[in-house]
Amino acid sequence: MSEADSNGSDPEIDRINLRISRSFLEVVDETWRERGFNSRSEFIRYALRDSVNHPEGAGLWKDIAISEAQFGETDGVPSDEIRDEYGTNGE
Fold first, then answer.
1. Where is the signal peptide (predicted)?
2. I want to staple 71 with a disulfide (CB 3.0 to 4.6 A). Which of 32, 41, 55, 75 is the partner?
3. CA angle, corner 56, sides to 40 and 24, nearest 5?
């Protein structure tokens, strides 16, 4: 991840770069659409806020990060398996 870049139009907003595998990005994109978010960025901001505000759920994000580091470009876990593992219903 690179350092944050200032957004010239709003001094309160910074842009960051995030590198993830294409297969994981496909899962992220499927998830934000299923959950009714307007964009990938909106979903990621929500997920980050939720992780910071509810650290007891950090285990899920830690597991996702570990999985991301271990999986190659062609590997992935279907979102329904993740939902089953963590007892979420995709909402």
1. none
2. 75
3. 30
Q: Can you read off the two tokens belonging to residue 24?
A: 């994981």
Bridge partners (DSSP) listed for residue 7: 10
In terms of Cα–Cα distance, which of 34, 18, 39, 28 is closest to 90? 34
Q: Which helix (H) or strand (E) holds 86?
A: helix 79-86
What's the total number of domains in the chain? Answer: 1
64 located within any domain: yes
Q: Are 6 and 14 in contact (CB under 8 A)?
A: yes
In a domain, 9, yes or no: no
Got the DSSP string for 21-85?
Answer: -HHHHHHHHHHHHHTT-S-HHHHHHHHHHHHHH-GGGHHHHHHHHHHHHH--TT----HHHHHHH
Q: Which domain, by its residues, includes 51? A: 20-86
Does any domain span residue 79? yes
Of the chain, the percentage scoring pLDDT greater than 70 comes to: 74
